[in-house]
Amino acid sequence: MSTFDVRRASDIEGVPPQEQWLIEGLWAAEAVGIVGGEPKSCKSFLALDVAVSVASGTPCLRRFPVRRSGRVLLFAAEDALHVVRERLAGICHAAHVPFGDLDVHLITNPIVRLDVQDDRRKLFETVNLVRPTLLVLDPFVRLHRIDENQAAEVAPLLATLREIQRQCHTAVLLVHHARKGAAHARAGQALRGSSELHAWGDSNLYVRRRADRLALSVEQRAAPATPDITIELRQKGDALALAVVEQDPGLEPEDPSVPDRIMQALAASPDPLSLRMLQKRCRVRTATLSAVLQDLIAQRRVVRTDHGYRLAAA
Q: For residues 88 and 52, is the Cβ–Cβ distance under 8 A?
């Protein structure tokens, strides 16, 4: 008789808190996920900043500490190799990292298709050979010829990347576009194509343009939501890189989004909260609150119990 392997939960080794992050607060260790945003929102610059940080061990955006550094494997489908090199060199300059020591390796083939069996095999074998701590693929739309709106076509491609992550113990960062005109939609709902993409990610970063600056939203499958971070692309000598914009203490912070208000209210309560209690604490209409709660439940960030709503266990 053939069965699946089974172990008692208490016999499985835990992971120390310091080893749970690849980049603290931004990307979980060995997580798959998406860097998403509208066109010209610096998604690729953010992905390259993550790559430089992991490869060099220096803080991402000069702010977020790297907890697990190592080699990075990158495929940039839309940019010429010399452009990628120039951008990496500029970020290294901003981070005070010697570019010649940077352990970032580029896939130089012009095309990689996740919907082609031979390319999937080549990608798996390349990752297995290079053994990167992080695999960056930019962007998703250039990695296939499927219909992104069809979950049945998207799911197998994402399953391939999840298999690479699990078998090779590497984090996977996938750059993906947001829908046009979705600037005011909730971050995950703004992604183009099937909802499989949003559900797939363990760590997701979303960039949105606000006037002359950018707002970075962070979602984690196994960690609480955090307030948005304001960033901007800065030119300083030879360095062109993203940087965190410090909040002026004289300015009032923007009101948190409805999902953030819900997550903050649940995090602050030792007991589950009813819909009425959440509505009172979050100051939002019942219809909006119910819709957002259903999204958070689908993302496995919130759990509904007989006594109300509570945060999902990490």
A: yes
User: In sequence order, which residues have a C-beta less than 8 Å from that of residue 124 and are 6 or more positions away?
Assistant: 160, 163, 164, 167, 168
The packing angle between helices 43-56 and 81-95, to 10°, is 60
pLDDT along the chain (314 residues), means of 10: 89 78 96 93 96 97 95 97 96 95 97 97 98 98 96 97 97 92 64 93 92 87 87 87 76 63 86 88 83 86 91 78
Residues 159, 294 share a domain = no
Same domain, yes or no: 154 and 217? yes
Range of the domain at 268: 258-311
Report the candidate in 24, 37, 4 with the shortest Cα–Cα distance to residue 206.
37
84 close to 35: Cβ distance less than 8 angstroms: no
The CATH code of the domain that includes 267 is 1.10.10.10
Domain boundary among 212, 244, 276: 244
